[in-house]
Amino acid sequence: MKHCTNRPNCQPLAQFCANWAENLDYSLLPEAVVGVCKKALLDVTAVGIAGFNTRVSQSAQALAPRFFAEQQPSVSLFNGEKRDYKQAAYCNTVAAHALDMDDTSYAGIVHATVVIAPILIAYAQASNKSGKELLTAFAVGSEIAYGLGTAVGSTLYENDFWPTGVLGVIGAAAALAKLQQLDERVITRAIAFAALNASPFRCMQGTDAKPLVAGEVVKRAIDAVEIAQTDVSIPLDVMERHEGPFKVTTGGRFDQSQALQLGAYWRLLDPGLAIKLFPLCSCAQTSVEALMHLMASNHLTKTDIESVSVQTTTMVVKTLRFDQPQEENQAMFSLTYPLACAWIDGTVTPNHIQLDSINRPDLHCAMEKISYSANDALFDLNLTPEAAIVSIRTNQGKVIKHTCLYPTGDPRAPATQSQFENKIKTCLGDKINVDKFIKAFENIETLENVTDLSNHFKGK
After folding, report:
1. Which domain holds residue 158?
2. Total structural domains in the chain?
3. I need a labelling partner for 47 at 20 to 30 A (CA). Which of 396, 403, 424, 429 fits?
4. Looking at residue 141, which CATH number applies to its domain?
5. Are residues 308 and 227 in the same domain?
6. Which residues of the chain fall short of a pLDDT of 50?
7. Is the peptide bond before 200 cis (omega within 30 degrees of 0)?
8. What pLDDT score was predicted for residue 139?
9. Does any domain span residue 275?
10. Within this chain, do residues 170 and 290 fall inside the same structural domain, yes or no?
11. What per-residue confidence (pLDDT) applies to 387?
12. Same domain for 255 and 286?
């Protein structure tokens, strides 16, 4: 086996990750890492509440009993209903990804939080785990997923695989095994089996399949942990093998040394997590923000604008392919639709990801006046792969432009506390009262002091 630097006796990479996971204690987490973990847990809970009543989330709630036999219903769904922890983990994951408003890491371009947090929250509620145990397990799963993400870079995404299905399932399995206090041998086997059971393809973008596959990732992570505790044989060196998931999906571009920095280099801090302010694919966030900036800074109303044009990257154009969205998931993978919402309504909220908004004549009229094209030569694709230059032509013939390299919420342009709280309030809407909203913040802020999570992370 090659590339064994820093691994005793050329141990498999899965075992290296498992050894680190087993030995990580809450006391070893930097304060800044704990802060990022808390924010991610609050964010994913809020977007899960916002997405709970979507059509795809309701489908997941109906499907869950077919996938998991009902055990003790001790865990809260985001609507307050009680389910078994496995069903709750599945349903809450789908809900939290239904609006594509959960965070992203550019260490692999992966939505790891949405497939790691719900499974940990559900198990922690069912098993009376502490806040410190939850935070530590979340850090374990996230760092393993992002360490592997750094090893593959953007190659998975560029090759049309869905990184969350490849990297997220490994992180989720490692995190769940850690929370269950399993030993290095079992965690190794769980990581290896999860890597064998990846679910990759990006062609599902713009359909209900994407949030449902996020739920599938959670199912496979649960299976991996349970299978790891049996005596079946598993190829522990799966991540190194030429016929394994990383060598196959990346064409061999897998820098294992990047995955060997666990604990020495925290990907939760660098590159960090991109918090989305709008319920859209990350590729659309920059253009929407640029348009909103132009309108606000030039004091333009919707009637002042004749047309909007965008120059962006090939990746954005390839990803946002629904110019005339017909349903909710297509709207989140469109560029013309959210720009029309920002033009006519001044922003994009979860309420726009509904059929009555998608069918609005005024938004369709605006979409007809929006154009876009790819011009990679204008941008540094390594640093700003989703950048955009937005131009407005006013009714007086004046053309004004604004460049947005990355949106607010990106680690390089963090959202303010006020902006973050506004996002949470927008997600919760009338689904939760103000007192409970304040309580949610307080619960997260003091999470490390909670000794029993059975009554935390509840919905309505």
Report:
1. 8-260
2. 2
3. 403
4. 1.10.4100.10
5. no
6. 1-3, 5-6
7. no
8. 98
9. no
10. no
11. 97
12. no
Mapped onto helix, strand or coil, the DSSP state of residue 380 is coil
Kindly state whether residues 239 and 322 are assigned to the same domain: no
Indicate whether 147 and 180 sit together in one domain.
Answer: yes
**Pairing verdict, β 370-374 and 305-312:** parallel
Of 276, 291, 318, 270, residue with least CA distance to 404: 291
Assign 3-class secondary structure to 278-313.
CCCCHHHHHHHHHHHHHHHHCCCCHHHEEEEEEEEC
Q: What does DSSP assign to residue 117? A: H
pLDDT at 438: 65
Per-residue model confidence (pLDDT) at position 3: 45
- Give the whole-angstrom CA distance, residue 133 versus residue 199: 28
Distance (Å, whole) CA 312 – CA 420: 26
Helices (DSSP H) in 128-161: which residue ranges? Answer: 131-152, 155-158
pLDDT tens string 334-358? 999 999 999 999 999 999 999 999 9
Backbone angles phi, psi at 279, to 5 degrees: -80, 70
Task: Give domain status of residue 410, yes or no.
Answer: no
CA 270/CA 161 separation, integer angstroms: 23
- Mark whether 95 and 187 lie in a shared domain: yes
The CA-based diameter of the chain, rounded to the nearest angstrom, is 74
166 and 52 share one domain: yes
d(CA 122, CA 429): 23
Cα–Cα–Cα angle for 194, 53, 39, nearest 5°? 60
Phi-psi region of 331 (alpha: psi -120 to 50; beta: other; left: phi over 0): alpha
Q: Domain boundary residue among 226, 260, 294?
A: 260
- Per-residue confidence (pLDDT) for residue 436, from 0 to 100: 66
Number of H helices, E strands in the chain: 20, 6
- On whether both 191 and 318 belong to a single domain, the answer is no
